Amino acid sequence: MALIEKIRSKGTLIVIVIGLSLLLFLIGANPEMVFGGGVPDAGEIAGETISNRDWTKAVEDRKPLFNYSGNDQNLITDTWNQIVEDKIYADEYSATGIQVTEEQLESIMFGAVLSPYVNATIYNGQATDTLKKTMRSNFDGMEAKRSDGWRRLITKKRQKEVYDAMIKKGAYANKIDGKWAFKMQNDRAAIDYVVKLYSEIPDSTISVTDEEVRAYYNKHKNELEYRNKTESRSIDYISFPVQPSAEDSADVRGQIAALIPQFLASKTDSAFAMTNAATPAAAISRYTAGSILEPFNSQILSDSMGKVIGPYIDGTTLKIAKVMKRGSEVDSVQARHILIKDPSPAGKAKADSIKSVIAANNNFAAMAAMFGTDGTKDKGGDLGMFGRGAMVKPFEDACFSGAVGVLQVVNTNFGWHVVEVTKKGAPKSYSQIAVIDRMFEPSPKTTKNAYTSAKDFTLNNTDSIAFRTAAAQLNGGTRIVSAKNIAINATAISGLSNAGALVNWAYAADLGEVSQPELIDNQYIIAVLKEIKEKGVPSFENVAEVMRKKVLNEKKAESIKANLTDGTLEDRASRAGLEVKKAENITMGSRNIPGSGASLAENDLIGAIFGLKTGYTSNPIVGESGVYVFRRNADVTVGTTTDDYLSNQTATTTTLQSRILNGINNAYREAAAIEDNRYKRN
To answer: In 56-66, which positions are buried (b, 16+ CB within 10 angstroms) versus exposed (e)?
Structure first.
């Protein structure tokens, strides 16, 4: 129901509620004490209620641990995900005896072997003994509440790491598994076949009634293919861009013009620029030739020092610049490296040993092939030529400051590198500039005018039909954007990167309801709730179109099969007006027949190809994209291996370990019957 209609129908109730709310505010009472209920609980996990009080405390406890920079949506998403993980694994940790003692916690935070979570989160993957000492000192001096929060979180993450490692140890592929993985990709079949795709028959030639679709729904609605794994919402939306007006642009130009004489007279260019720039972090920079249009590019490269250059437009920003320094430096190098993916002291010891061997034997390429762990190992470790900014900072600094031919050992978040610079580009001139910028952005007045236009739209169009009709007429036709299957904790949707508030609205709205204007990414967004999907068996409306297509294809398949049932492959092709085609190099891992025109996976067809005897012609096979008949003219070509399937066995083990972890996590979540009420209202 639209908001205005709700207000009209419940005006008296609203007056009463407002009065009671004022009274409660004055006396300081808890609304739940007065009304006996209040806001619904935040959710339920495995039968355990997550109260609003517990939820609020969890958010507040997590907030000081990370720099969310005001991004509340990420904060609440991370908090909820951690609560879910804690609840669904708590019994498993207890049953398996997984605990983290104070001594263990100390070790995984500051010891020789860190927790992967600690290494990635606290040390950014670049833990050193010095940094560990600094971190220990920081934790010792940290406020108790924050320090305890970190220790609780790290303890929980460590329990999960140990649990996952234990599960992975139980996942193993034997030699037979490796053999079948190999055969799936390397045994090959060749066939002659005919196919009639459903897309070749116009839908308009097939009659499908609503009753037939409903019957198909009743028969298939409980199948896994159609079940909604999670709840979701789909919306359509339009936007009212908030763009700077001519008056706004003139104001920005006036601000910059007023700064030019002061900038010209300034004796400390860097300080003046950083004080007056809208983005102080970019006030001092190296200028790359050609970055801005002429004549300003040439002025920066060659005009006299101390001259104020501009104003000039750079994207959506107006800038003035002053050249502080000119010089020359190498801007590209060629290097080779050997990466040891072990950030521990043991990894450094290995890198030092490799460096010593190379220094003694001049065999960098051979050592790279033997010990390298990335894609460069087969190229002697060669990284090719690269410029500044292409590599992580410690690696870049080592390459640009190091001499050609000198071996170095460098630590980055990837591990330890044995590095040798093999070539340096010729020095190139550069200009260091001080920049003052102002962004062209809408003023409060312009923003208000855009809001007024958007608000008028919502007041005059309160249902989905009116929404679409008005959008088609607005400014000669406004684009309607669809965002489908939005998850309850989504922060971005199709076309919008900061859509958390709009997602919250979608989960609180009624089907067909039109939203109030929401300012997102410099545009006012107005949405209409198009579809509601609850978890589990889908509603008929959710799948009606998909199932109508299934019924259409079933009827098409019946008509196609009539001409493909008897006779040789050539006879059947002739009756159906089809061409006999050839296909080679079909594997058991193929999705469908190459060249058939089918886009969907045809698993039954591929299985039949490898199961039919040589020389036989198959019965018609009803697939996802069409109906097929094939003849296998030769035996399957069996692939051969030189390592007794060992590499396939190893790869299959890795795949199984990943799948089993994901499978267990999904199973626990399914069994926990998670009910997320954070975005719902009565």
So the answer is: eebbebbbeee
Query: How do beta strands 428-439 and 284-287 pair?
Result: antiparallel
* C-alpha 120 chain-centroid distance: 18
On whether the CB atoms of residues 322 and 308 are closer than 8 A, the answer is yes
- The contacts of residue 150 (CB under 8 Å, 6+ apart) are 65, 139, 142
Rounded CA-CA distance 149/58 in Å is 10
Q: What is the pLDDT of residue 537?
A: 93
Distance CA(83)–CA(75), nearest Å, equals 12
Digit-coded pLDDT (tens) for 555-614: 999 999 999 999 999 999 999 999 999 999 999 999 999 889 998 999 999 999 999 999
Cα–Cα distances (Å) from 331 to 10, 269, 288, 335, in that order, read: 69, 25, 11, 13
Question: Is 443:251 a contact under the CB 8 Å cutoff?
Answer: yes
Residue 35's pLDDT is 36
DSSP state of 88: H
Q: How many CA within 13 A on the CB side of residue 303? A: 17
Length of the chain: 682
What does the pLDDT average to over 289-304?
Answer: 89
Q: Are strands 523-533 and 481-486 parallel, antiparallel or unpaired?
A: unpaired
pLDDT digits (tens, 9 = 90+) for 346-362: 899 999 999 999 999 99
Q: Please say whether the beta carbons of 136 and 110 come within 8 A.
A: yes
How far, CA to CA in Å, does 337 sit from each of 98, 340, 397, 411? Answer: 40, 10, 14, 12
Provide the Cα torsion 121, 377, 402, 127; round to 10°.
Answer: 20
Q: Both tokens of residue 626? A: 């069409």
Q: What is the Cα–Cα distance from 291 to 282, expressed in whole angstroms?
A: 15
pLDDT at 39: 58
Q: What is the CA radius of gyration of the chain?
A: 33
**Given pLDDT bands bounded at 50, 70 and 90, which one contains residue 70?**
low
Confidence at residue 38, expressed as pLDDT on a 0 to 100 scale: 52
Q: Are 576 and 563 in contact (CB under 8 A)?
A: yes
Distance CA 503, CA 490 (A): 7
pLDDT for position 1: 35
Q: Give the number of other Cβ atoms within 10 Å of residue 328's Cβ.
A: 10
Percent of the chain with pLDDT over 90: 69
Take residue 518 and report the two structure tokens written for it. 């929401």
Distance CA 222, CA 91 (A): 31
pTM for this model (two decimals) = 0.58
